[in-house]
Amino acid sequence: MGINGGQALIRALEREGVEVLFGLPGGAILPVYDPLIDSPIRHVLVRHEQGAGHMAEGFAHATGRVGVAMVTSGPAATNIVTPLCDAYMDSVPMVCITGQVPSTAIGTDAFQECDTVGITRSVTKHNELVTRAEDIPMAIRQAFYIATTGRPGPVLVDIPKDIVDPANPRSAMDWYWPTDAEVEASLPGYKPSTQGDPVRIREAAELINRSVKPVIYAGGGILKARAAEALRALAELCDLPVVTTLMARGAFPDDHPLCLGMPGMHGNYTAITAMQEADLLIALGSRFDDRVTGRLDGFAPSAKIIHVDIDPAELGKVRRPDVAIVGDCRSVIEDLLSALQALGGSAAQPDRSAWKQQLSGWREKFPLTYENLEAGEGHVKPQFVLERLRSLTPSDTIVASGVGQHQMWTSQYWKFNHPYTWVNSGGLGTMGFSIPAAIGAKVGRPDRMVWAIDGDGCFQMTAQELVTASAERIPIKVAILNNAYLGMVRQWQEMFYDERYSEVYLSPDLPDYVKWAEAMGCAAMRVESTDEVDAAIEKANGINDRPVVIEFRTDAREKVFPMVPAGKGNSEVMVDPSQQAELARIRALGL
Fold it and tell me: At what angle do helices 49-63 and 434-444 cross, to 10 degrees?
């Protein structure tokens, strides 16, 4: 059947099950937008190409399916580099289609030309410049296959205008759809390993059975592998405490008695110290990120390491494991459960009562805390806002955050009891992530309430995508924690730069967030005291015909604690000022 390359591209996306596409048309990709009119695929028209990429990421985070973005050449392609890098670092399955100048113009510095493949090579799992219309179906099949198998990640397909333009003879082709076998045969060097080595899995089980101070170190790979249920079964079988990294929040329920919460630079004291004092770390889909380890030479000095990851490059990259297992987390955990059962299951576990008592003591002495304000007294405490948001929304609410203090407070004070409800930028730490990511998450899960938690600095970077949300009837809800500063930068300058506040003040009133939100088609309100918080949240929760923005005027003096200072070891964690005397006493006693 004779069709053109543009029609083939849209048909290929339909065959891959794509239901929504985030994008912005332009000259080089314009021929593809014509057959899109006749397609059942929903197109969400963004206001900036970066927004398209982050929406695709949010969609993928919330659904586990591939997020798809389509933009034109040149500056559009360079605008989507940040989401590609973000998705690459956080292992998010994403396919990005970029337009390119006609084949005959490539290399001539044509209008809106750039070397998209060269620019994105280091921030994609795979990228390709397609040079023939008949190669489009295979390129799209390969893109989705690579994005979703092994360690997930972004794939970019660059399409010259002439091979999709029906007016150009080079776009004429006969439709075909490659089989699974043909796709795999076309990628002879790509063979992701999913099944773990049985010998090493048994070695891991034996290590667990000998450990008296174990900790499961669960990373984002648990969620990518859809392994939350398997993780819970492992923890409960062996009575193993679990820490969930920033990328794994929700992979293990926060209300479970074995959950210790988040470790790392701004994790809670118990999670940080448990890892530090453990004799065994069972690292599942985690990569020993510097924000978790602190100064590496002082990290978990007495711990043996079991490291499970689908990416063999992660094993031994930062910390040499005692047992290294390449494989899909869910598959490996299920095999590990069988091995543990064969070795005696729960009955074979050693006495860990002293370890459990130690963990309980840390929890009791060093919980997350802050000094709250009485009703009507000064600006609102950001931690209080998050506690009330958590309490007044459904337990399966999807929460997207920007990057900075508000991100850390959200991870600390929200209770994540369901997987795939936490959408954030971990590895790259992209300010401006939350608004477009929340839009993508809501498109993917329209049945769920979606809140974006943003700071005033982050909000100003991508707020224009609320126009997209209003125009497309995507009713997300946004909480701006406005402290008039780049909060995390201010915290560092106060603590480590002698309060020399260099280029960090943003102003509480410029812009006027309520007017700005209303101008973008949103319902908007401002909260300036503690006694106004609940009513504003409840009002926002009741508005479902358009986006809602609440500006909370928060206390700029608040800092995120606990905190492991940059360059320090986890044993040097700083707690809230109200707890510092007790921590100093314990350290002096060598406890």
Answer: 50
